[in-house]
Amino acid sequence: MAARRVPLVLLACGSFNPITNQHMRLFELARDHMHSTGQYQVVGGIVSPVSDSYGKQGLVLAKHRVAMAELALQSSNWVTVDEWESQQPDWTETVVTMRYHYGRILKEYERSVGMHNNSDLSPQLKLLCGADFLDTFKIPGLWRDDHVEELVGHFGLVCVSRGELQPERAVHESDLLSYRRHNIFHVREWVKNETSATEVRRALRRGLSVKYLLPDSVIEYIHRHNLYTEDSEMRNKSAVLRPLVKQAQEPVKSLDD
Amino acid sequence: MEGHSITKVVLLACGSFNPITNMHMRMFELARDHLEDTGQYKVVRGIISPVGDAYKKKGLIEACHRLEMTRLATESSDWVMVDSWESLQPEWVETAKVVRHHYEELLAAEQNIDDVDTIKYAKKRRIEENHHKDRDDLQLMLLCGADVLESFGIPNMWKQEDIAEIVGHHGLVCITRSNSDPHKFIHQSDLLWKYRKNIHIVREWVTNDISATHVRRSLRRGQSVRYLLPDSVIHYIKEHGLYSSESEQKNADVVLAPLQRYTGASSS
Fold first, then answer.
1. Rounded Cα distance, A37 and A3, in Å
2. Which of A115, A122, A142, A158 is the most exposed place for a label (fewest CB within 10 A)?
3. Does position B238 have pLDDT exceeding 50, yes or no?
């Protein structure tokens, strides 16, 4: 009897400042990989741009970042952009965003399948990220320990890297991650592709071409609204990243927020 | 009005384009930005010239498909276009000949713009004269990756006089990345060093390794190649069932055309 697959949705959180072909590749690679395990059926992908209150240097307005992601994903039949996170009044912790989306996905699934669903085949939501993401867990004050546990223990990570061993090493060097390594999926893109939003912004500031690094429609949008200039890159220059401030103030809360 | 004049440049890329990828298209953009940044050049056109089937490279699929995929990829570009001349030749054509052909076509087109004279004979003579007298204000440069530059060193791959013609009479724009050292390669070759002023090295700070080999491999394995090449090209590939294990075996036991032609010939 053929094994039934767990329906899986991939969520990517980030600045998407701007979205690039490389971001969209992450979804494609992750989907192929999770399918090939034989255990999952990827049924959706969500791009969730961070809110303006994140305070990262060079971050342009969320409404633009969402619009660009929409343009980029127009031709995709399974990945969509969601603006819930970007519309929250304050920066939202990644796990809070995940809980929100998981709640929606579960509700939708129960509605379409009825109440007979086998709990083994409940849909799952995993966080899709790049290799450098695992290293951010080490940055003091950026993550709460209980959030990391919920993220990798309860939800799970799909981490796309370019063939280097750094992600495995990051897992190995952290007791928490190592304990949950069965829930961290490593996907390799053997093609070295360092196209990053940072490089794209750099090229735009210098009047250089970014064609074929992101969709034409997004490039047009950028030029029409004159985004990504020397001034835009200076935004938030002296600000402290919001998570570092917010999490320093709060006492540790339980899972049942 | 500035004292110095700006040289018009046409970039020509030869290769298999099997299939064309976003990386190929990026090369043109990088080259144009680099040349125009010097203030000496204005890049007016880009030409992609897919190699003919007679090249006999392993896994090379029919030229008609490679031409159409390239045409689809260039649709969104207002300055880069595909040219079928090379692929339509019955035998494999040396790159120097392709360069020569396109340069002559360029000159002829410029002549048509310059002259009021419509007498065919006089025009033909002028074209022949200009073949030996390179114009200062118009250049055709060969656009390539570091691997092509380094292939100049592979025995029997290139005729020395062809290399001399390309870098001596025309020019080379070489896109390279952090892990290769084209300057060292140029330094170690007397021929290249002699014409180093005509060799423009464009450093690609952001490594973009989307090779056609990788794309073909992914396609064979049923993996997604989305966002590595234009959607229209992916659609074409699926529609025509290109790039399978069978197609990759084509020419597996055949010798590459240049090696076949030059092996045994005395070195110049």
1. 11
2. A115
3. yes
Alpha helices in chain B (DSSP H): 22-37, 63-74, 85-88, 95-114, 120-132, 146-151, 160-165, 182-187, 190-194, 212-220, 231-240, 245-249, 257-262
Interface size between A and B, measured as CB pairs under 8 A: 55
What is the distance between the terminal CA atoms of chain A, rounded to a whole angstrom?
41
CATH of the domain at A144: 3.40.50.620
Residues 6 or more apart whose Cβ sits within 8 Å of residue B142: B12, B13, B14, B95, B99, B166, B170, B171, B172, B173
For the segment B206-219, the average pLDDT, to the nearest whole number, is 83
A118: in domain: yes
Q: Which residues of chain A have pLDDT under 70?
A: 1-2, 114-120, 163, 249-257
pLDDT at B138: 94
Q: What is the pLDDT of residues A169-216, one digit of tens each?
A: 888 888 888 999 999 999 988 777 777 898 899 899 989 999 999 999
CA gap A18, A219 in Å, rounded: 10
Mean pLDDT of B211-217: 88
Contact (CB<8Å) B29/A209: yes
Q: Is A194 on the interface with B (CB under 8 A)?
A: yes
Residue A60 maps to a domain: yes
Is residue A194 domain-resident? yes
Determine contact, residues A161/A189, Cβ cutoff 8 Å: yes
Whether residue A158 contacts residue A129, with contact meaning beta carbons closer than 8 Å, is answered with yes
Cβ–Cβ gap A191/B33 under 8 Å: no
ipTM, interface predicted TM-score of the complex? 0.79
Looking at the 3D structure of chain A, how many domains does it have? 1
Q: Which domains does chain B have, with CATH numbers?
A: 7-112+136-264 (3.40.50.620)
Considering the entire predicted model, what is its pTM? 0.84
In a domain, residue A57? The reply is: yes
The parent domain of residue A233 ranges over: 7-247
The distance of Cα B251 from the centroid of its chain, to the nearest Å, equals 22
Nearest residue of B to residue A207 by CA position?
B33
Length in residues, chain B = 268
**Chain B residue set in contact with A, beta carbons under 8 Å:** 22-23, 25-26, 29-30, 32-33, 76-77, 205-211, 214, 223-224, 226-228, 231
